[in-house]
Amino acid sequence: MATDQPLTSGRVGAPTAPALSARRVTGGGGPARVDNGNPRRPKGVSPYLLLAAAALFWSGNFVLARAMREAIPPLAMAFWRWCAAAFLLLPFAVPRVWAQRRLVLDHLPVLFALGTLGVAGFNTLVYTGLQTTTATNGVLLNSSIPVAIMALSWAFLGERLTLRQGLGVAASLAGVLVIVTRGEPGTLWDLRLAQGDLWILAAVVAWALYTVLLRARPPGLDPLAFLGVIVPMGVAVLLPLYLWELADGARMRLDAATAASLAYFAVFPSILSYLFWNRAVAEVGPSRAGLFVHLMPVFGTLLSVVFLGEQPRLYQGAGILLIFAGISLTLRGSGP
């Protein structure tokens, strides 16, 4: 995949010349990589392992959000999830934000856009959609994220998709369809777009924009400082929406299950997944990273077998093999 190629200022949304000059393009004979100046990942930790872990945590987020939809209204779910994440994150992030305050102040517009799209927008849209659509529809529609990222990467960053990579995406998407349709693709004709599905599609667009916009984040900004800025911004955007939900009469049920769910939401799909995703996108580029969203139905299947006692099915194995084959094919297609 031709990811992390030099960005051209002639493209809409391309970073400005100062932002480009602040970055280094590295890599010998392999694909060029843009160094945003962030601390390098620890040796031995593959960006693809980070992407797989992020997908695993987000799989649990989808399943748990659907299960808790009666106990926690969608805006409350998003608001308190990120409040809890901020509470855990800010003691570590604030000193780093203060040390880089000039860099933060110089890039407030792009940071606010990232906080709105990635923190407030995506999660709220997903939680709202899962109130009225099935988990199957949610996973299926969410699987269009890699395609949306590639389209936006081409439009805004000038990234090109090779034939091999296109075939890899098609194979991986076919594997998703095999899993969510239980090996009967004809059931797709029976799917009907409900209001919740439209919310999920809006979330897809929000996450694709967030992922592509990560390329314009401040060069050299510490990863924890980055989260320490965009999370409070996202919470600030969510606050009036949450107050509106309260005024409308929606209330969160307070019990142990709710507390445990919010704790999971705050730590795994929020802090850890975002750190992993942001770091990996900086290394491998948005298009290649986006394909790992297709691992979510794989992990959803495995979690159901391990924790719910469901019996594994042949179609699930076939779908998983197709997904891994597609990812492998795409990762090998790194040429222009």
TrEMBL record:
Transmembrane segments in this chain: where?
A: 48-67, 79-98, 110-127, 139-157, 166-183, 198-216, 223-244, 256-277, 289-308, 314-331
Q: Which residues form the EamA domain?
A: 48-181, 196-331
**Which residues belong to the signal peptide in this entry?**
none
The entry's localization annotation reads: Membrane
Cite the entry's keywords alphabetically. Answer: Membrane, Transmembrane, Transmembrane helix
What name does the UniProt record give this protein?
DMT family transporter
**Record's family?**
Belongs to the EamA transporter family.
**In which domain of life is the source organism classified?**
Bacteria
Q: Where is this region: Disordered?
A: 20-40
PANTHER family the record matches: EAMA DOMAIN-CONTAINING PROTEIN, INNER MEMBRANE TRANSPORTER
Q: Enumerate the Pfam families for this protein.
A: EamA
Organism of origin: Pelomicrobium methylotrophicum
